[in-house]
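Dear Dr. H.,

I hope your travels went smoothly. While you were away I took the liberty of generating a structure for the chain from your last submission, since the lab meeting agenda had it listed for discussion. I wanted you to have the full record in hand beforehand rather than looking at slides cold. The sequence, exactly as received, is reproduced here:
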Amino acid sequence: MNSTHNNRSVQSIIPPPPTHFVGDGFKVHHFIPDYYLSMERMNPFLMLDYNAPTYFPPTETPRGVDVHPHKGFETVTIAYQGKVAHHDSAGNSGVISEGGVQWMTAASGVLHKEYHEANWAKEGGIFQMVQLWVNLPSQDKKSPPKYQSIDHPQIPQVNLPNNGGHVEIIAGLFQGKKGAASTHTEVHLMNAHLKPGGEVEFSFSERNNTALLVIQGSIEVNGNQEAHANHFVLMNNDGETFHVKAKEQSIVLVLSGEPILEPIAAYGPFVMNTKAELIEAFQQFERGEFGNLE
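The corresponding predicted structure, in token form, is as follows:
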């Protein structure tokens, strides 16, 4: 490993918090916000729910989360195993399949629901996914909602040296290659698929809030910090470059984003800048301004 003055160190390795259900279809570890991690500490990443591999038995009625509103931020859903279907009040619908990503900009407000895809639910199986909330700067909170539906083959990959694996770039930059999703602010989001002994170096601006989630396997960060599946590695803002080595076949979600230096006023499904804007968001929702969805 190259020892340089701009190495980024590990602040803490956070074990998975107890699981809880979101609706009846998502059994999640809620990492952000949590006792260790405020929205401000991980800004622009406001929330991270991780549904570690969970078996759901076959059912005719797909499990999921019923109609609910969002306003003021983006939701990013990454499917590792299983399939997620969704509908919204703007008439959008689709299925996020294994390896795929849905990047939904709720912005000025939308109603949506998400649930296990019907045919997958009938078969049952192992379900595994991440949902991340990404904040928007104040001027973008009022923009119209939009979707980026990204299938796995559309995600650019960089192969690592010595047959060590590959990095899939959902958003941002890795080794000069640009990710599939467009973002409002600087957001880097990628999956490192590492073979046993595979190594990779990441470098992001020191100001960026940066973390790793071990989706599968176990890794060593900077040669001396070990992290296992379902653990969250919070990096300090004390440098740019850090090193990851897989101790076994591993998948690591890497997230790094430039903080949006604006106040965060969050309540339930709304994230605005002031309490007054939050009250306005609830009033808009109650007046039916986010549309209709059965």
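Two observations you may find useful: The longest helix spans residues 275-286. The chain has a mean pLDDT of 95.

With kind regards,
E. W.
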